[in-house]
Amino acid sequence: MTEQTLTNVRLIDPEAGTDRIGTLTIRDGQIASVAVGSAAAAGAVDCRGKCLAPGIVDIGVKVCEPGERHKESFRSAGRAAAAGGVTTMVTRADTLPAIDTPESLEFVTRRALEDSPVRIAPLAALTKGRQGREMVEIGFLQDAGAVAFSDGDTVTTDTKVLSRALTYARSLDALVIAHPQEPGLSGGAAVTSGKFASLKGLPAVSPMAERMGLDRDIALVEMTGVKYHADQITTRRALPALERAKNNGFDVTAGTSIHHLTLNLLDVGEYRTFFKIKPPLRSESDRLAVVEAVGSGLIDTISSMHTPQDEESKRLPFEEAASGAVALETLLPAAMRLYHAELLTLPQLFRAMALNPARRLGLPGGRLSPGAPADLVLFDPDAPFILDRFKLRSKSKNTPFDGQRMEGKVLATWVGGTLVHGTPG
Amino acid sequence: MTFRGRHLLGIEPLHPIEIATILDLADTYVDLNRGAVKHSDTLAGLTQINMFFENSTRTQASFELAGKRLGADVMNMAMQASSIKKGETLIDTALTLNAMHPDLLVVRHPHSGAVDLLSQKVNCAVLNAGDGRHEHPTQALLDALTIQRAKGRLNRLNIAICGDIAHSRVARSNILLLGKMENRVRLVGPPTLIPSGAADWGVEVYGDMAEGLEGCDVVMMLRLQKERMDGGFIPSEREYYHRFGLDAEKLAHAKKDAIVMHPGPMNRGVEIDGTIADDINRSVIQEQVEMGVAVRMAAMDLLARNLREARGDDSV
């Protein structure tokens, strides 16, 4: 079987929290050995100045198959993921139709196997058709490979239905991923409320709606004992509630999106619909508080919330335009902004992008230690470029980073020891 | 004369000198409109299309009359009845119209930012006749002209804008314009109708009419936009009228010579008492309508000049 050795590379080990020069050897699809210190070895690739980290495990990627393959397919999303250093796409269930039966989940798994160069770990819906009325066949879907259950950004408003689904999920030790939001407040909103929204005359939601949603969900966690992950925590005021839940010993984790960590509500500017995401971009003080929470570990995971939208869905007045942004390929370069701004270290970033998501979903990746699968990303954190959205591999080009200066390029990506993007040399 | 814009999309991008330029020119059109021959050929040969994606009688009539008095060929399109019903997108509609070579496009749309989006796709001058809750620049300009003519100046005035600020594009444009011209602006209304973040706009916010109107030179009432409300902003119209409707008692807190304005159409007995609205010594509501035509003539005249200059056509 093939063997590859990378020497003099900066090893970003999120488990140990270290960023050290060393050598890593890949053999038989696994990480065979890791050694600290510079060395020269015959046949090894010298990766001086570059970083090697566990491949990104991205919770909440929308692939648009089935239903909207013109926006994104497993082939295009898989290639974008490989080019972005994402080695596991945790795919969302909010497709058309929703992934709510073992049969539709099987379709996803099969399509991914046929066309995607990176791994997928599928989510299944929590309720049938994501309608919030009846729970899905959680047991069957688990057997079919669902790693967690989520209705995406649809909030189950019927608390009785939700409490039953959570109770049932608890009995199967299933993880539930929810979108904390009070829909009574956020309905119809396009931006976060405040001076900017009022001046632009856009329908807006108070950031407090997130905290209300989270408070309700945490009460349900306390009631049912379910394993719970909040998909995106994006506001300062939701953080104390999250912290209390964790301190009380509930099995609660939380994620956030790369866009909420790197952009704020003013970026919408003159009604730029590529900046319309869900939940909407927040204030700068919210952004900084959330970055800090990632640093402290209060927020566990960072994801791309990759949501492809075609041009027609975005070339509309802001209120009517669809939400979401593609981000598989821009996740790592955007994350490097936080590193270069000295807000987060590389081990902290990869703890949130690789180690924590893998652990939470019970996947073997996310680590840089012998025996772990060789799902790896080699990147140059300093390489500058200007992003051209038409060069993205995603079928949809709706990135808010178009035309922006970025630093950080993915040079090579391995999945199970196989090179799926770039070259290490 | 200084007016650089290719479009008139809002008050926000305008410089005070540009505002003054429009108002000065509008003043001359007031005289024209009051004369025996209400016509000039300033826009002769140009095509003006009024595209209203939202119902309007007054504003559309005002723009139509303004264009006709300046000699433009004017066409009205009631958009809510046509292509959008058939699923055409705003941009496709814009491109279709653009192919007909209009010179001036007057657009009203129910969504904030929609007129801006449309202006990016056409070759002609675009006038915003109101977009969602964002801006209504010609309304603010006509209000400014009315104030300037009634008060003899457009600076250092205390101006209270009262009522449904949250749903009002008129309020946003007026706040911007009056602020740029160095007036003190107060917002008065129930907290549910004051937009969040309003206190950061450089205005004073009041929840009580008597306090808010104290010593004011201008009292600008806004229409309670019942059609934009999805319920629960105010407990009832009678309580609203009692606390925030303009009557003689509340108006007594303003200066003796304070003028009363309203962009229309009025809800008599909701935000304003009928006798105040009809009081020729206080109310300038009819003047506002008159100034509307003049201001729209001035705005279209200036945009047409810039358009001709950009096209290298100095024949007129």
Task: Chart the SSEs and their pairings.
The complex is a heterodimer of chains A (425) and B (316).
Chain A: E1 3-13, E2 18-27, E3 30-36, E4 45-46, E5 51-54, E6 56-61, H1 74-83, E7 86-91, H2 102-115, E8 119-124, H3 138-143, E9 148-149, H4 159-171, E10 175-178, H5 183-186, E11 191-192, H6 195-200, E12 204-205, H7 208-224, E13 227-230, H8 239-247, E14 252-257, H9 258-262, H10 284-296, E15 301-303, H11 311-314, H12 331-340, H13 346-361, E16 376-386, E17 405-415, E18 418-422
Parallel strand pairs in A: 1-4, 1-5, 6-7, 7-8, 8-9, 10-13, 11-12, 13-14, 14-15
Antiparallel strand pairs in A: 1-2, 2-3, 5-16, 16-17, 17-18
Chain B: H1 16-34, E1 47-52, H2 58-69, E2 73-78, H3 90-98, E3 104-109, H4 114-119, E4 125-131, H5 137-151, E5 158-162, H6 169-180, E6 184-188, E7 204-206, H7 209-213, E8 218-221, H8 237-244, H9 248-251, E9 259-261, H10 274-278, H11 285-310
Parallel strand pairs in B: 1-2, 1-3, 3-4, 5-6, 5-8, 6-7, 8-9
Short description:
The complex is a heterodimer of chains A (about 425) and B (about 325). With about 425 residues, chain A is α/β, with parallel strands linked by helices.
Distance between the termini of chain A: 20 Å
| Tally of domains of chain A | 2
Q: Please count the beta strands of chain A (DSSP E, at least 2 residues each).
A: 18
By secondary-structure content and strand pairing, the structural class of chain A works out as alpha/beta
Instruction: Based on Cα principal axes, name the global outline of chain B.
Output: globular
The level 1 CATH classification of the largest domain in chain A is Alpha Beta
Biggest sheet character of chain A: 8 strands, mixed
The CATH superfamily title of the largest domain in chain A: Metal-dependent hydrolases
Low-confidence stretches of chain B: none
Average pLDDT reading of chain B: 93
Total DSSP helices of chain A: 13
Low-confidence stretches of chain A: none
Largest interface pair = A-B, 21 and 25 residues
Number of helices of chain B: 11
Strand content of chain B: 5-15%
Tell me the CATH topology of the largest domain in chain A: TIM Barrel
Q: Level of helix content of chain A?
A: 25-40%
